[in-house]
FAD-dependent monooxygenase
Amino acid sequence: MADVIIAGGGPTGLMLACELRLAGVDVLVLEKLARRTGESRAGGLHARSVELLDQRGIVDRFLAEGSAQPLAHFAFMHLDIDDFPTRHPYAVAIHQSRIEQLLEDRALELGVQLRRPAEVIGLEQDETGIEVEVAVDGGTERLRADYLVGCDGGRSKVRKLAGVGFPGTPATLTALLGDVELTDPPSEIVFGQEGRRDNGFYMNFQSEYPGLRRIITVEFGKVTDRDAPVTVETLSEACVEIVGTDWGMHSPRRLDRFSDACRLVDSFRQGRVLLAGDAAHVHFPSSGQGLNLGLQDAVNLGWKLAAVVKGEAPDELLDTYHSERHLHTTHMLNNIRAQTALWPAGSEADALRRVFEDLIEFEHGNRYLGGVISQLDTHYPVGDGHPALGRRMTDLDIKSPNGRVSVYELLHGARPLLLDFSGRPDVRAAADGWTDRVDLVEAEPQDDRWAFPVIGDVPAPAAVLIRPDGHVAWATPTAAAAGSEAEGLTDALTRWFGPARARREQDAA
Ligand SMILES: Cc1cc2nc3c(=O)[nH]c(=O)nc-3n(C[C@H](O)[C@H](O)[C@H](O)COP(=O)(O)OP(=O)(O)OC[C@H]3O[C@@H](n4cnc5c(N)ncnc54)[C@H](O)[C@@H]3O)c2cc1C
């Protein structure tokens, strides 16, 4: 029996499996497909995802295969994030198939069990665990775990079996994707505003398959059956309608259909069932957010689920997974839908687009949208006080007794981190009951101010508590906070990482 079963070995499921294993939890990933398709939908990682991989010490694997690109855009209006305060002020262009392979390699290194083909087809939860029915080669099996996480994509079986609502807005357009050969290919790549027409939108760029082009068409106002098969003729007709030619397309290697249906689960959690990635939210791929949202879901959930499974934190900690990610995703989906409204050419959308272009010229407009699109501005409502609360921690270089180290290096093991720049005994004393779970690092104070994307510079605190997902859980209001430096620290430690050791031992006795 595994502690946690994950349905779906896509990017979200694999990232979550890695997070759980880092925390010492037994994980079984069940994947419906016998082998990877090798096909990619996503083509890149935004800056915050690159940071997440850096926080776990595996970013070099992705940087070695991808290329840093200025890919942050809002409805293809370029956003400048090069001077954002991060080590990675760029997106990394890398095919989804490679992202999945690199995450799978990492998961196997960490000892994740991966079973395929194995399709989750039923579930039943009770007070002590969850029973999962799985279709395997020619039969079915029943497996038991403490929790099941559905990372099984937009049409999630787990979501449906758990009866979780998936409200949102229906499709208003039809989008087709094909990796095809072209007899008479256009000399120019079209990957941006040049593809806008009044009745649709198209893109034409290099496919991941050598010698093929990826053609994407979007027909506004046309809603088709999402299960209807896509043929090269369907794609060709859409191309002729929008562009006036199909460049002699033939010999498709892959054909697909997607839409702007935009939905978000009404709860990321139903008892012992949790949902993450596309299983929890679907939307049009404007500005390439889906896979990146899934990675952030995984990193937000991983340490919380691990702490609950290990009995360190109460089950209610999992409710914060819902409250934090639901709030953030609602905001992101709104942004994505606003982008879709800006696609049609020759309508009021053109006028609105010009307004946005002007706004982006202002530093604040660029910073705000750049923060959302790069996902560097992801923040959670953890409480009031220091302006960094709930935001992702900046990757400072710090000087500790063990030498120079970066904050993200200290997060490689996915453990909570208390950075104390004050050297005052009350901080150490407050953290005493959590030394089994929280790494305390005493560092020399460096800068008076810390730089954050979007909110800008903030006063450096005297001490900061960082969750394993890299978000700030607690900080003193300033470097020279009046009274006790450790005020509120024990509450924050208890809230996020469970009761102090003595209390836990007492409760267990
Ligand atoms: C055209 C297009 C372009 C895109 N471009 C981008 C982009 O540039 N950037 C970006 O961030 N996102 C992009 N996306 C979105 C991105 O591809 C998805 O958000 C991402 O794949 C979601 O990952 P996931 O792991 O949650 O789900 P999936 O990738 O859908 O993985 C789910 C896995 O679960 C398995 N599964 C399904 N049912 C079961 C079951 N019952 N039991 C066991 N296993 C099961 C599936 O076989 C699959 O392997 C794009 C999407 C499209 C359509």
Notes: The chain has three domains: 4-43+95-167+263-341, 171-258, 397-508. The pocket of flavin-adenine dinucleotide is lined by residues 7-13, 30-33, 41-44, 96, 119-120, 151-153, 157, 177, 258, 277-278, 285, 288-292, 294 (CB under 6 Å). The chain has a mean pLDDT of 94.
